[in-house]
């Protein structure tokens, strides 16, 4: 073969190899460009640009009418880029300069600004003046960036619902936690060009990526109804509640629900805390007792027993029942609250009188299987699903081990443990026509533009009783308020249905004598309910009808007026005749207390007298420095108003203008036997 041919073959082979290499290279470049280009570009930008995060503003939390309950206010954060600080060689000097401005030890600042990290926050939430001084120093690697801080303009209002956000603007409790994803927004950043040596490039390009504000969470809560509830709780916790006689409960809660939708209009608990300073609060005050605490409901639970007995047609309201003072079950006597019993009465009167033996008879007729079926159907022993963390299940007696005696005590609201939200949800089902609703706290999610992103609809869980049964029981419970044990919640011109409850507190397997959980549950108007209200007062030596009923009466009256519910011309203006053996004080109309702060004593007394109030004074001087109840409070007409005079006026305990014994006049008597907890005869 000639040398020419050999050379041509070699050239051809070389050309083929080069061609194959070029094809492979082109394919590889195409693959990298098309499939990995975005990731590689991001890595290049990350090394070429350094970003300072810009925190987004959290979305507002508002009540159902758009009143702001939680908002974010602008603040600033001092940050450091440690690589630049180290390169400057002035870390110790810069730390000493920043120390007096930030109020932190220089050693702590130096350790932070020289860390092996891309970015370090030196101090969050600095004042605008301090931020300006830091910028004026022009320290290498030290800068400020926009930040935000959570602010709760109403202080303690609805604190247990709203919760609070931490220093990094992350939700820690309440709606702030459960709606974190909607509230937090999307962070932005400020990008600056750097060379490979980590030095900012002269006339470098800056990019600002704006943060996106979080969505607004609009609650079902009504700020005004919440305020009515919290006002009454404040009175209770300062010993000013009607009939409290200066006594202060351990805790109390008031829940208000729209029974037809399950929307919570108020959910208030005391003691409470200020979410602006949540770190300073006792952890126990941050507990949402209306959701997380259980208690024996006492006679308020008789609403459930009555609903089941009526639905199963185990009783007729006109049917007679004889109460001899006790009901004997398995050789044990469960006593009526009234010594000697109520004698012959109809089941309508059994409900009005809250007669223990009569309700035990209903439970016995229902039987264990039916009774437990209604317990479950009404939602006891399970979470309601309300949007709050830590909701308790409640505790039901073990059905397999339960006896007829357990059934007797459960029928009158003892033995089982329920939460306030469970009880109010169950009673609302009786009020709304028989359907159990899921309690709602969030009405809608609204975007920064004002457009509704996520609306929430009412959620029906199950039908429990018929419309006819619901209507019948509403009439019975209205009679309880008009003629029976709930007369202290009577409102002239309004149809109110309700039930008192008093439960002894359990401790070490037995009941604590003389310390009760007093409660009252009501809904109105009785024929077409707009509101259902439950008040629970823990740790008082008084019965539910004495201390809880007046609280519900006041909140109910203020709320109905606020909602524009006009009095019913067919509703009674006075309650019926009290039960034999019980003396009730006349129920007076509610009246608004005028404010007389800063007025001379004579002028204050004249204004209060014209409004129908009596006055008491404390201290020396001629000017009113303070008053209890405060101005604009709703109290019974002809109440005493205590006026504090002079700069050094002391504030003694104010004794209520009238005292009264509850219908539970019989001394507490308990059974002993198989039950691990003594059986109390409390009726109300």
From TrEMBL:
SUPFAM superfamilies documented for this protein: beta-lactamase/transpeptidase-like (SSF56601), Penicillin binding protein dimerisation domain (SSF56519), Penicillin-binding protein 2x (pbp-2x), c-terminal domain (SSF54184)
User: Which GO terms are recorded in the biological process aspect for this UniProt protein?
Assistant: cell wall organization
Q: Does the keyword DNA repair apply?
A: no
Name the UniProt key words of this record, in alphabetical order. Answer: Membrane
Q: Where is the PASTA domain?
A: 588-647
Q: Which domain of life is it from?
A: Bacteria
Return the Gene3D superfamilies for the record: 1.10.150.770, DD-peptidase/beta-lactamase superfamily, Penicillin-binding protein 2a (Domain 2)
Would you identify the family this protein belongs to, as annotated? Belongs to the transpeptidase family.
Which PANTHER family is this protein grouped with?
Answer: PEPTIDOGLYCAN D,D-TRANSPEPTIDASE, PEPTIDOGLYCAN D,D-TRANSPEPTIDASE FTSI
What name is this protein filed under?
A: Stage V sporulation protein D (Sporulation-specific penicillin-binding protein)
In its UniProt entry, the species of origin is given as: Desulfosporosinus lacus DSM 15449
């Amino acid at each position: 073969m000639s040398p020419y041919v050999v050379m041509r073959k070699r050239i051809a082979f070389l050309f083929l190899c080069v061609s194959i290499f070029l094809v492979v290279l082109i394919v590889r470049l195409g693959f990298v460009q098309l499939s990995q280009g975005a990731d590689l570009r991001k890595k290049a930008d990350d090394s070429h640009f350094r970003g300072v995060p810009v925190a987004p503003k959290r979305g507002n939390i508002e009540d159902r009418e758009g009143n702001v309950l939680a908002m974010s206010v602008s603040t600033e954060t001092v940050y450091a880029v440690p690589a630049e600080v180290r390169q400057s060689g002035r870390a110790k000097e810069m730390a000493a300069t920043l120390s007096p401005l930030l109020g932190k030890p220089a050693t702590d600042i130096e350790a932070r600004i020289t860390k092996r990290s891309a970015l370090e926050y030196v101090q969050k939430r600095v004042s605008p003046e301090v931020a300006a001084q830091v910028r004026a120093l022009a320290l290498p690697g030290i800068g400020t960036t926009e930040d935000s801080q959570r602010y709760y303009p109403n202080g303690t209002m609805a604190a247990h619902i709203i919760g609070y956000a931490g220093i990094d603007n992350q939700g820690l409790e309440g709606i702030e936690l459960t709606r974190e994803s909607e509230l937090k927004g999307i962070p932005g950043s400020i990008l600056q060009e750097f060379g490979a040596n980590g030095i900012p490039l002269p006339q470098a390009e800056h990019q600002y990526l704006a943060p996106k504000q979080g969505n607004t969470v609009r609650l079902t809560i009504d700020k005004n109804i919440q305020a009515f509830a919290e006002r009454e709780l404040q009175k209770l916790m300062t010993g000013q509640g009607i009939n409290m006689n200066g006594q202060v409960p351990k805790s109390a809660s008031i829940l208000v629900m729209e029974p037809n939708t399950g929307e919570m209009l108020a959910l208030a608990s005391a003691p409470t805390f200020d979410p602006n300073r949540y770190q300073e609060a006792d952890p126990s005050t941050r507990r949402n007792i209306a959701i997380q605490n259980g208690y024996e409901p006492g006679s308020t639970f008789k609403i459930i027993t009555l609903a089941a007995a009526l639905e199963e047609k185990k009783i007729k309201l006109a049917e007679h029942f004889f109460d001899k003072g006790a009901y004997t079950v398995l050789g044990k006597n469960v006593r009526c609250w009234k010594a000697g019993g109520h004698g012959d009465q109809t089941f309508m009167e059994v409900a009005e009188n809250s007669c223990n033996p009569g309700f035990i008879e209903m439970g016995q007729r229902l039987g264990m299987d039916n009774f437990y079926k209604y317990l479950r159907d009404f939602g006891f022993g399970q979470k309601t699903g309300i949007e709050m963390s830590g909701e308790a299940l409640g505790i039901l007696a073990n059905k397999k081990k339960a006896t007829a005696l357990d059934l007797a005590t459960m029928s009158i609201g003892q033995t089982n443990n329920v939460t306030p939200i469970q009880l109010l949800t169950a009673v609302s089902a009786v009020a709304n026509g028989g359907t159990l609703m899921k309690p709602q706290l969030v009405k809608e999610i609204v975007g920064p533009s004002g457009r509704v992103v996520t609306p929430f609809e009412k959620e029906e869980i199950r039908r429990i009783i018929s419309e006819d049964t619901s209507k019948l029981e509403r009439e019975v419970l209205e009679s309880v308020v008009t003629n029976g044990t709930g007369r202290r919640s009577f409102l002239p011109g309004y149809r109110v249905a309700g039930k008192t409850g008093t439960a002894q507190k359990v401790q070490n397997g037995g009941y604590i004598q003389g310390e009760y959980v007093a409660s009252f549950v009501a809904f109105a108007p009785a024929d077409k309910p707009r509101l259902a209200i439950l008040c629970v007062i823990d740790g008082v030596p008084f019965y539910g009808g004495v201390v809880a009923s007046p609280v519900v009466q006041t909140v109910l009256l203020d709320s109905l007026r606020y909602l524009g519910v006009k009095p019913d011309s067919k509703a009674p203006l006075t309650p019926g005749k009290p039960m034999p053996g019980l003396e009730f004080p006349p129920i007076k109309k509610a009246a608004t207390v005028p404010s007389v702060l800063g007025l001379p004593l004579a002028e204050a007394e004249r204004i209060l007298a014209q409004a129908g109030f009596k006055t008491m004074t404390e201290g020396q001087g001629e000017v009113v420095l303070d008053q209890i109840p405060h101005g604009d409070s709703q109290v019974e007409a002809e109440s005493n108003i205590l006026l504090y005079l002079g700069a050094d006026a002391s504030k003694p305990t104010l004794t209520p203008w009238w005292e009264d014994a509850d219908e539970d006049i019989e001394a507490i008597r308990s059974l002993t036997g198989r039950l691990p907890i003594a059986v109390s005869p409390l009726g109300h």
